[in-house]
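Lecture 7 notes: from sequence to structure.

We start with a single chain of 106 residues. Read the sequence below before looking at the structure.
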Amino acid sequence: MTNDLPFPGSGGAPGEHDGPQSQQDYLATELAERLNDPNGLRFYRKITRIYAEPYIRQILHQALNVDERLIRKSRGALFTWLLHRNARLPFRPRAVPDISLDNGLD
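Now the structure, written as tokens:
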């Protein structure tokens, strides 16, 4: 017996969301659930297509381990900040400004 459905496993046409999700969609859904941020699902789908899963999971681990009392906005906002901050550090190290108080007049 052959499967006559146009998209195996989906039971429908392209674009329908009742079929199996991609690994990226599963990860995005997991992020939204674990960060208690269902409104961020679209953003999480986007980042799962940009960043590698191990990197995302590393940042998720960091965000989940921060004490709730230290979080200013939300755990989802913290995750986003960590994601972007850590993503640019290896590529654009920030210069440490010279804040010495020595004015050279000694």
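The mean pLDDT is 74. Keep this in mind for problem set 3.
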